[in-house]
Amino acid sequence: MNKQVLFIANTLDSAFKFQPVLSTLDVDVSAASTKRLRRLLAPGADVDLVIFEARDKAFELLQEVVALSESRGCALLAITDESLVGEMRLSSDLSCDFVMHDASHAECLVRIRRLLGTNADDQAKTITVDDMTMNLATYQVTISGEPVDFTYLEYALLAFLVQHPNHTFSRDVLLQNVWGFDTYVGSRTVDVHIRRVRAKLGPGLAEHIGTVRGVGYYWM
Fold first, then answer.
1. Which pLDDT score is estimated for 139?
2. How many CB atoms lie within 10 A of CB 137?
3. Which of 3, 139, 147, 162 is most buried, most CB within 10 Å of its CB?
């Protein structure tokens, strides 16, 4: 049975951004404005994850959303702006997280999967390739049981490729999905991060990352 996601926002910006992210998951999505918040999170509500746009005036409702989510036993992902991060007070529970409004699709997907995974034992949390294991819930990678120290962007790039095997992605597409839409870095940044990821994977695993000259990269 699909997980139930409640998307609460007063603008269309986040809705348009998250639609392609949520469409890749086995979830049913209900969308509403903050005016229907209390009704949709009433006792007995069947919700696994609340995605709440905590921006502008809606930020004032964040603590109420946190309390309602905790009382209903559902996870919460707050969408916010960097200027408001210092004012956020989220639950220390692992089922509560936040993401920047301009975050990449890859980051949003990883965070949503982790949150859904905390409420669903059947949610796929790990990917194993040869002697490498990726934990999508904790953002950790081990090779032969030893942890590998990836930066967040290196991890996001690797996770995106591993989750879309045998498909060549151009540098522009990788920039869009890993770095985000509002990025000011060039395509050379992708090449640099690919080299770093290959180096940390080691000779054997690095061969899984293929290069199509003049186009981009793929995972095989």
1. 79
2. 17
3. 3
